[in-house]
Amino acid sequence: MDQLPLDVGEPTPKSGLRTSRAKKPVPLAELNPIAAVVVDVNVPDLDRPFDYLVPAKFADSAVPGTRVRVRFAGRLVDGYVLARQPESDHQGRLSTLSKVLGGPVLTDEVARTARAVADRYAGTLSEVLRDAIPPRHATAEKAFAAQEGDSKERPTSEDPGDAGFAPSTDGHLSPVWASYEGADQLSLRLAEGTTVRVGLTIAASDDPIEMLADLVSAAPGSAVVVVPDATDLSRFETVFARRFGDDLAILSAAESTAQRYEQFLEVVTGRRTIVLGTRSAVFAPVDRLQLMVIWDDGDDALVEPRAPGWHAREVASIRSLGTGASLVIAGYAQSVETARMVSRDWLVPIQADRMRRQSAARVLTAANAVGDDPSAASRLPQFAWQCVRRGLQDGPVLVQVGRGGYIPTVACQQCRVIARCPECSGPLGRSAVGSGLACQWCARGVDNFECPVCEGTQVRAVRLGSHRTAEELQSAFPGVAVRVSGSDTGVIRSISAEPQIVVATVGAEPVAAGRYSAAVLLDGNAMLARPELRAEEQLVRRWFNTVPLVKPASEGGVIAVTAEPHHRAVQALVRADPNGWAQRELADREATGLPPTTRAMVVTGAPEALTTFLETCQPRDSWRLLGPSPVDAESSASQSRVVVLAPTAQGAQLAAGAKRALIATPPVSDEVRLRCRIDPVRVLG
DNA sequence: TAAAATGCATGT
DNA sequence: CATGCATTTTAC
Length: 685
Hints:
single chain; 685 residues; GIY-YIG endonuclease; 19 helices; DNA-binding
């Protein structure tokens, strides 16, 4: 309002410096001389496009989606052109694009998806784009451009007559799908190109990779398949490479920068239409996206560790909503989030019929043990020993153990149910002050504990035993090779079909040629006792991921579970009913108001900063605030943590409030940065 | 985030 | 009412 910008060339008395530095005017692009640019500056305040003048020399190269360098706040920064416009509504002086780097890499659709993801997680667009677009590799780009120029017969994805790849099925799926009710509908809708969203639970006896490849084949358009890690990726790649040939691109951060960027360019130019990759591949800029598949969405590797910490499943969901692309969330187990999407009719559940599910390895528990078993309470009860012994008669045996470590939590002395906070149902632990108990989530003190199950008033500490399992087994089976697989001792990928014992920590189970003849799942009780909100969920998922490693019941495959036989997690395994377990867990979360039935936000930082944050955030009455409670920071600065639980219907308000608060909270220099995460992996505990 | 603009206490 | 340093504002 006050000092309106003066006409070009007219010097102001007080801006002599600027005038003397001003460059001679550069001719501008005739058409749409303004570029809206998202600058790579990660400040919540600056999370909006900035307008720049497009010089004539960039008129044709600075198209939407291209990487540019611009002068911003005195610095040269990277950015992307979001759009070209005839004019700007910016009142001040516009700067000029400094450089254009390569061709377009950011499609309009990915930009919109990334914007929605940033909004959902109270992050910035530039943060999300950093995840969505791999770092530029100039050499790879040059090589790619040269190669593109050479090949005259560039495969046109528009051309329906292109015989390079024809769907191997005419909307018909392979026979394995026969036991999956609703699969015909699914393939039909994929073939005709209508939107379908599915929660797919795969039975242990079936091959998920071939099945998911079937779905990709059934869909005539582009597909993106996301797996959690490099191990899954290589298994999928073997099958996908065979089935999709040159249409397949692999997007993974494990590749070299050059390879990764080359694959990305193949995708963004539309030369490859089927993408297989790890979490960031969920943003793959394929041409006419038709199908997204997320494999094993309960795996935490699908969460981007850097801010704003998006989950590939949620990104896929957002992208599906924005584009109408079909969505398949598949796994041997069903995550609670997926169960929720099913219960909200956002996903259609598809799973194998009971007969097919029951065809997997038979599950034994202590309840199956005959007569009194004196060792039933020990770490490796008698029926588990027997399971190992019998298994060794015709193949390898897997012994799955939980991670070691002390668990500072308490359980009912009598019935061993975990002691929980009557207020927020967080786990109770020994209070740091005094001798009482305190909630580890909301810091509420609990003086008079009463077990809601058996009314006991005494508690006991729960801890994991040390991992002597391998030695114990070795001395019990002297002639047998006992190998250990774990992140500390080294992970074994695969083993032969020879009789041997593999002791593996959860998540490090090798694949056995011809499958294991038996498996023993240990430490279930201790893992079920962990204070984390998602401990049981992770255990159930791990168990269901282990079943396929063991021979089916028809070949004598047996799995022994040492955890409490009547626990619903064990029952789910016995009955091969992961969906039922997820439904019940969901109902519990609903009853206690915990995620995913509520949207969670975890804020950590200096106590004063937290106060400011919460004020600006304007929590509604329907939101629950847990804490602030002190967090045991390794650094000397005192840190607190607040957990905010809001109804998911108010997720947008929560994120918007968080963003407002992040802007308002002064960037306390030196102090520990205020951190805010929405729906983090570790919500509570 | 980094520079510019503003604010505030201090000293002449 | 300059001067220096801290805090706030702005960024095309």
